[in-house]
Design goal:
The chain is α/β, with parallel strands linked by helices and 707 residues long. Among the domains are: 196 residues, Dimethylsulfoxide Reductase, domain 2, CATH 3.40.228; 116 residues, Barwin-like endoglucanases. The protein is 29% helix and 17% strand. The protein is built from 23 helices and 25 strands. It has a six-stranded mixed sheet with strand order 5-4-16-15-14-6, covered by helices on one side. The chain has a six-stranded mixed sheet with strand order 21-23-22-25-20-24. Helix 4 packs parallel to helix 18. It is globular. Keywords: Iron, Iron-sulfur, Metal-binding. One of its GO terms (molecular function) is iron-sulfur cluster binding. It comes from Rhizobium rhizoryzae. Belongs to the prokaryotic molybdopterin-containing oxidoreductase family.
Amino acid sequence: MNVATPITLKNSTGHTVCPHDCPSACALDVDLTDDGRIGRVRGANANSYTAGVICAKVARYAERLYHPDRLMTPKRRIGAKGDGSWQEISWDAALDEIAEAFVKAEAQHGSEAIWPYFYAGTMGQVQRDSIERLRHAKRYSGFFGSICTNMAWTGYVLGTGALRGPDPREMAKSDCVVIWGTNPVATQVNVMTHAVKARKERGAKIVVIDIYDSPTMKQADVKIILKPGTDAALACAVMHIAFRDGYADRDYMAKFADDPAGLEAHLQAKTPEWASAITGLSVEEIEAFARLVGTTKKTFFRLGYGFTRQRNGTVSMHAALSIATVLGSWQYEGGGAFHNNGELFRLDKRELMGTAYVDPDIRMLDQSQIGRVLTGDPVALRHRGPVTALLIQNTNPMNIAPEQRLVRQGFLRNDLFVAVHEHFMTDTAQVADIVLPATMFVEHDDLYRAGGQNHILLGPKLVEPPATVRTNLFVIEELAKRLGVDHYAGFGLSEREHIDRMLLPNGYPGYDQLLVDKWIDCQPGFEESHYLNGFGYPDGKFRFKPDWANGPSPNKTPASIGPLGPHAELPTFPDQVNVIELTDDEHPFRLATSPARNFLNSTFAETKTSRDKEGRPEVMVHPDDAASHDLEDGSIVRIGNRRGDLRIHVKIVATARRGVLIAEGLWPNGAHMDGEGINVLTGADPVAPYGGAAVHDNRVWLKKETA
């Protein structure tokens, strides 16, 4: 039975952290009952960023923890891949079979035939990243984690030289909060907490820039709904107006920017009329937005991930970021541009990840291109041998990865061994050879850091897990023993020991003190946060002219791979670059696969409340497009492109632009009419210059289904 047993806390409140793939890493207060179960989950009022507010899906986490379909025992496949035939086996037998399969794969094709594959299903440092220690010790294929952050991080850092920014709590002190390319009402509710506080206490304006009238847009004072992939054009026009009308802070740029004169000359032609033709916005909308931010010194640009998930997404991030430098917004409390604070958290992860064992000659395989890797694409394989064994933790590539038909084809190879460590029988688990049941976050110790805010947070174990499930760390340790590397440094340590070794060398308190303190505020002082001591480059200058092929990035491609995508086409200065999938006569629509409010990637799609609230897979269609295709609410359409096609129900909404289709949420493949999810339509060709998946950048056709 899925019943936890008590540890030491009863009828009390435990303190932990939301583990999921979200910039917030919310601090949580969890009710603990006398039978060792969790009850209500709340945001921690004492944490100044979480401020007592969390999303509804995490608030009802007990529904997920005690779900009747949670995996409870190891399983071995006994039928054909994907047909659902399993037998329960012991943990020892399961781990023995995985180790034997890895040894066999290495004997046949070398160590690179094994690919440990993971991502951010938990953001806990120990449970997420210990798999890297096994990878490096065994010289298995490297993992280039590109799918989510690369375009956004790269575009930001190529401007600032560092992945940090103003204290995100300063949104509450702003006179104008620009929420650009993110839907925080659905995906990061704390952004709205601080933005709305600014509106209530200061009369601040909230501007939302997106491609459809999202739930966040409904909270906006100013709505800017532009065509997908045209954010850089809007940014350029805003900067053009700033120079034209005297909003540009020339003194600030003279001190802190590399080539303001060159930028001004470049922007001469980037008029509101030029941008209007590209973005679909009116000249009046562009002028009004530029005037608002140009006359409001305390403007806080909160730049999200969503608008960067286009093939020109890195350029778009850099262009939007550049507005704050042209205006000099960085100089003011409540001003500047923020995306992520990842650089602040100085954790010593050398032992955790086994970096001493890294062999630079081992190939790096792109997470986003798993379909191409598993179907033998020589470029994706770096012109080396096949991958014949996978260990998967914390991710669900059979649902979330692009080019799903290739992904499925690869996973169904008879010569591919797959072990999946999971909470539920996900789409990926369904095609595995061995499935292992995993603990959830309140059932183990871990340490978290919050890219969207400023804290390192402790997530201690609050309840005992069911007796038959195991942590990610346990699996890595046991495989290390069976594979003969458990004597390497970093193995044999508990979660708490790993946490201490990450924290103590850099002067942070260890596990025991964090158990009392709960979190560490890592936000530096105002001048450092706002780059008033200089930006992150040696000369202290913001880069209007980034070095696209050689500049810094937190997740830069290794030298053996080099720049990716059409990097030679990227512009010298901020500009609209149409490397996106533009519509054509055959594909008259642009499709974005936006997040749903009640799912988080593919997580929570297994819980009844989340599924009931989302309803069913649907595609949003503008009323005029619906009329031209003789569609009604609930009509069935087939949408497709060169990568595939699928049937889906129509939801007619005036919130999308004409020619733009929105499919919210990553539903399990089986929830779709033909058993294939929306990522059948998304591509895996890498975004310039350092990779990433352009999952919102798809041109498609649409046809009404008559039956």
